[in-house]
UniProtKB/TrEMBL annotation:
Keywords: Signal. Residues 323-488 form the MmgE/PrpD C-terminal domain. This is MmgE/PrpD family protein. Residues 59-299 form the MmgE/PrpD N-terminal domain. It comes from the Bacteria. Belongs to the PrpD family.
């Protein structure tokens, strides 16, 4: 078995997530990593010294240190505020999530500090607060995702890390709103560029969050610590040395994949703090012989994306998820909802359901059988049968559907048992949901393209993003409608905030985990 496959993550995962032939392709990453004959291990580049001038890493570090709010266009500021709304909304919804309070107690109960641990009323070191808060925002896998850089669209999960890293550091440094937004955008842009340029192979097993969000967090922290270009480069280098985390917990139905979101925030901030204290990291974090691309991916497929229009184009995540489910399930959810709505089908008359997807989707974790543990939410979140059956049964998929009473509903279990997954016909694209009724009728719905929420299809409006925010407030049950409105108003004017500690205090005073019953 070869160590490095030939199917890169863009082609393997993007097709599942986007559901169509709209797969962004990129040159094979063969310039840096040689391919191997079948049955052998692909050779790595031998370790060696980085380029003496720091390479592209120094150019990026100089940009991080020098970026100015005045250079950021109005659309990018608007989009950053929308991401901020979405991530904070997901943190609010996450207050009722599986294991959230316990994680916050473990991570944030470190004895005080200058940053707020949301949901607890406690304070901690910025790196610990950022970790706890990023994990909280990822609780239901509901947050904005997916980057588009120079036409290359790739699934991603950066925003919980970048938002919460910027918030914790800005609170600790008493930065103003413009400084906060600049740092957050610097991190979002770096994460988007490094991912879009990557030739990461999903079959390698690395989770993309730590690979690309850790350096983003380091850039944010370096910016807010006012590090110069040299120290920022050291921070980025040490961030690469903090990378770790695989997709195995998803395959095994465990909850540790959420911890990786928090670790990316914590480790990035730690790297910047160490650089601030005089420590040094690898000279070229990205393209050195044992840097990010050589060590964790098959290579840098599109290195030009790392610096193309750097400082002029600002990239961030763009798909505001309409359903709290792995995005690879979204094409099937949308298709099932359309079938249900058009045909006014009664789930009780469904005899069998066939979901036809691209052949490679059958090899993803969403296609494995649904089990109950060890993390019931993780099992259901990454399961296309659960997603499709829930959509057909209830006409939606919401946070409430992960509650035990709904998740274990016999009617849902019966529908799940009637679902079979099959490959699309030759030449087929997207997803097809086919329902056979007890009276012998066959009803079919196809989605040959991407889900509507993608910006190049229909996108999400400000009203839809705010509606999603308010639904999560209602679900949490611990945040008043008045407080929720106050949070949205403060986000609208975040660029006029004189001290981000005041905004963080609003969140800290408002967000509380529900009280547990004795």
């Amino acid at each position: 078995m070869t160590r490095r496959g030939t199917l890169d993550r863009r082609n393997f995962v993007t097709a599942a997530v986007l559901g169509a032939g709209g797969v962004a392709t990129a040159p094979a990453a063969s310039a840096q990593i040689a391919t191997a004959a079948p049955g052998t291990l692909a050779p790595r580049r031998l370790p060696g010294t980085s380029t003496t001038d720091g390479g592209v890493g120094l150019r990026i570090a100089a940009h991080v240190a020098a970026a100015r709010y005045a250079d950021i266009d109005a659309d990018s500021i608007r989009d950053a505020k929308l991401r901020l709304i979405d991530v904070i909304g997901c943190a609010i919804g996450g207050l009722r999530g599986e294991g959230g309070a316990a994680a916050a107690a473990v991570i944030g109960g470190t004895g005080g500090g200058p940053a707020s641990v949301l949901g607890t009323g406690q304070r901690a070191a910025p790196r610990d607060a950022a970790m706890a808060n990023a994990l909280l925002a990822r609780t239901f896998d509901f947050e904005v995702m997916t980057v588009v850089v120079d036409g290359t669209q790739v699934p991603s999960h950066h925003a919980p890390t970048t938002v919460m890293s910027a918030l914790a550091m800005a609170e600790a440094q008493r930065a103003d709103g413009k400084t906060f937004l600049t740092a957050m955008l610097v991190g979002d842009d770096l994460a988007a560029r490094t991912l879009a340029a990557s030739g990461i192979d999903f079959n390698d097993g690395w989770d993309g969050v730590p690979l690309h969000a850790t350096m983003a967090s380091a850039a944010i922290a370096a910016r807010l610590l006012k590090l110069d270009a040299a120290a920022t480069r050291h921070a980025l280098g040490m961030a690469v040395d903090q990378i770790g985390g695989t997709v195995q917990s998803i395959w095994d139905g465990a909850s540790a994949w959420k911890v990786q979101q928090g670790n990316s925030a914590r480790n990035g901030i730690l790297a910047a703090e160490m650089a601030s204290a005089g420590w040094s990291g690898m000279a070229d974090p990205l393209l050195s012989p044992s840097g990010l691309y050589a060590q964790f991916t098959p290579g840098c497929a599109r290195p030009e994306l790392l610096t193309k229009n750097l400082g002029r184009d600002w990239h961030g995540e763009v798909y505001f998820k309409p359903w709290p489910s792995c995005a690879a399930n979204h094409p099937a959810i949308e298709c099932a909802l359309a079938l249900r709505a058009k045909n006014r089908i009664d789930p009780a008359v469904i005899d069998a359901i066939r979901v036809r997807v691209a052949p490679h989707v059958l090899k993803l974790f969403i296609a494995k059988p649904l089990q109950e543990g060890p993390s019931p939410h993780s099992q259901a979140n990454f399961n296309i049968r659960f997603a499709c059956a829930t959509a057909l049964l209830r006409g939606d998929l919401t946070l409430e559907d992960y509650e035990a009473t709904r998740r274990l509903d016999p009617a849902l279990a019966s529908l799940i048992d009637r679902i079979t997954l099959e490959p699309l016909p030759a030449g087929g694209k997207g997803v097809i949901v086919e329902v056979r009724t007890v009276d012998g009728r066959t009803i079919t719905e196809a989605l040959p393209g991407k889900p509507r929420g993608y910006p190049d299809v229909a996108g999400s409006t400000r009203a839809q993003i705010e509606a999603k925010f308010h639904k999560q407030v209602a679900y949490a049950g611990t945040v008043s409608a008045t407080a929720a409105t106050a949070i949205l108003q403060r986000i609208d004017g975040i660029d006029r905030e004189p001290d981000m500690a005041a905004f963080a205090r609003l969140l800290a005073d408002t967000l509380r985990f529900p009280e547990t019953k004795a």
